[in-house]
C-alpha cells in the first residue's frame, strides 16, 4: 500500500520577513506558523506521516506527542538542500519507501485549505510523474526593460507553482541527486530536468507563502477564519 508522507522544510531563517527569529516560529492567531502548517497535515486522514526538517541547531521546536510526526534535524543551507537531506533521512531510516508519495510543503504556507490538499492527492497520488498545486497567473505580466515596460508577456498557459509538490520518493531522490542544487527552485523543476512532466493541479490563492512583513495581515485573517 502506497503511503502519503508529508515533508515540511522548516530550516530557513526568514530574512525577508525580518521578525528577529525564523518566521515559522512567529505566533499568529494563537499558534506558531509551523504549528498551523503541521496541523493541516496531521489532521488529514490520508496523510500517513509528517516529517519536519529543522536546522541542526534549532532550539525552539517543541515536539507535541503525535504518532504521525517525525522530527529531522538535518536542514541545509538552501531549501532544496533541506528537502534533499530530509528525504535521504526518511529513506535511510526506513520511514519512507521509494514507492511512497512524498508531499513537500513549505512550513511558511500555513493557510493551505484541506480541500486543495485532498485535490492534489486524489489527482496526482496515483500518477508516476507526480504533480503540484499551482494557480493560473491572474495579473497581466510585463517584462521590464530598465525602469520601463519592454513588453507585455502573454499570460495564457502560465501558472504560479505552490506547494505541496507530490512525487514518488524514488523519483524525487533521483531528481535531487544533482551536484548543483542552485537551479532547483522547487521540487518539480528538479523532476522536470529528468524529462518528466508532473501534473498541474489547481491550487488555491489562499495557499500563500508568508514571505514579507505585509503578508502577515492576510495570513492572520485566513487563520482566524479557519478556526
Ligand atoms: N527552508 C528550509 N531550509 C533552508 C531555507 C528555507 O527548510 N535553508 C524552508 C523555510 O523554512 C520555508 C520554506 O523553505 O518553510 C520556504 O522558504 P522561504 O519562504 O524562502 O523561507 P526562508 O528561507 O526562511 O525566508 P527568506 O528567504 O526570506 O530568508
Ligand atoms: Mg528562502
TrEMBL record:
GO terms for biological process: isopentenyl diphosphate biosynthetic process, methylerythritol 4-phosphate pathway. InterPro entries: IspD (IPR001228), IspD/TarI (IPR034683), IspD/TarI_cytidylyltransf_bact (IPR050088), ISPD_synthase_CS (IPR018294), Nucleotide-diphossugar_trans (IPR029044). It catalyses: 2-C-methyl-D-erythritol 4-phosphate + CTP + H(+) = 4-CDP-2-C-methyl-D-erythritol + diphosphate. Keywords: Isoprene biosynthesis, Nucleotidyltransferase, Transferase. GO terms for molecular function: 2-C-methyl-D-erythritol 4-phosphate cytidylyltransferase activity. The record marks 155, 209 as: Positions MEP for the nucleophilic attack. PROSITE patterns: ISPD. This is 2-C-methyl-D-erythritol 4-phosphate cytidylyltransferase. The gene is ispD.
Amino acid at each position: 500500500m502506497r503511503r502519503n508522507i508529508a515533508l515540511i522544510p522548516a530550516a530557513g531563517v526568514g530574512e525577508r520577513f525580518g521578525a528577529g527569529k525564523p518566521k515559522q516560529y512567529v505566533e499568529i492567531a494563537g499558534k506558531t506558523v509551523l504549528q498551523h502548517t503541521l496541523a493541516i497535515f496531521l489532521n488529514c486522514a490520508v496523510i500517513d506521516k509528517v516529517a519536519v526538517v529543522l536546522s541542526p541547531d534549532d532550539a525552539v521546536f517543541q515536539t507535541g506527542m503525535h504518532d504521525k510526526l517525525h522530527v529531522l534535524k538535518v536542514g541545509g543551507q538552501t531549501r532544496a538542500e533541506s528537502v534533499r537531506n530530509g528525504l535521504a533521512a526518511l529513506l535511510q531510516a526506513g520511514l519512507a519507501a521509494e514507492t511512497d508519495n512524498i508531499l513537500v510543503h513549505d512550513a511558511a504556507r500555513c493557510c493551505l485549505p484541506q480541500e486543495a490538499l485532498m485535490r492534489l492527492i486524489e489527482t496526482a497520488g496515483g500518477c508516476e510523474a507526480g504533480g503540484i498545486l499551482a494557480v493560473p497567473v491572474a495579473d497581466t505580466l510585463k517584462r521590464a526593460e530598465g525602469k520601463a515596460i519592454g513588453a507585455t508577456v502573454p499570460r495564457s498557459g502560465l501558472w504560479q507553482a505552490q506547494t505541496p509538490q507530490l512525487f514518488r520518493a524514488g523519483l524525487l531522490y533521483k531528481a535531487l541527486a544533482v551536484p548543483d542544487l542552485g537551479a532547483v527552485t522547487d521540487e518539480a523543476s528538479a523532476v522536470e530536468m529528468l524529462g518528466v512532466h508532473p501534473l498541474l493541479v489547481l491550487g488555491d490563492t489562499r495557499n500563500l507563502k508568508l514571505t514579507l512583513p505585509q503578508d502577515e495581515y492576510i495570513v492572520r485573517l485566513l487563520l482566524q477564519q479557519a478556526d
